[in-house]
Design brief:
By secondary structure, this protein is mostly helical. The chain has two helices and no strands. The protein has a domain of about 55 residues. The longest helix is centred in the C-terminal third of the chain and has 52 residues. The radius of gyration is 32 Å and the shape is rod-shaped. The termini are far apart.
Length: about 100
């Protein structure tokens, strides 16, 4: 069988229930079932809200950083153009004008 072909495993293909969600190597009695947990809907919603707020904060930080970088780039281009213009003016002056 080639490496690209998938093998079928009836244990893998069967739907997971209860203790089968446990990490490999743990006994079912040691496993924490992800199906039957005691987290209330309000706690889950609050957790999701906190995660959403954190992600929105990070996105705002990235947008602020990006805006700052664009502004810095624009200033550098402006300074570069001004410096270039000043250098050309200086080069075009006659020695007696200096």
């Amino acid at each position: 069988m080639g490496a690209w072909q998938q093998r079928t495993d009836p244990r893998r293909d069967a739907p997971l229930t209860g203790d089968q969600h446990a990490a490999p190597g743990l006994l079912p009695s040691m496993a924490v079932s992800t199906v039957h947990h005691n987290v209330s809907e309000a706690d889950r919603t609050a957790s999701h809200d906190r995660l959403l707020m954190h992600l929105m904060y990070q996105l705002q930080q990235q947008a602020d950083t990006r805006h700052s970088l664009v502004n810095t780039e624009e200033r550098l281009v402006s300074y570069s153009e001004e410096s270039h213009a000043e250098a050309l003016d200086f080069q075009m002056k006659e020695p007696q004008d200096l």
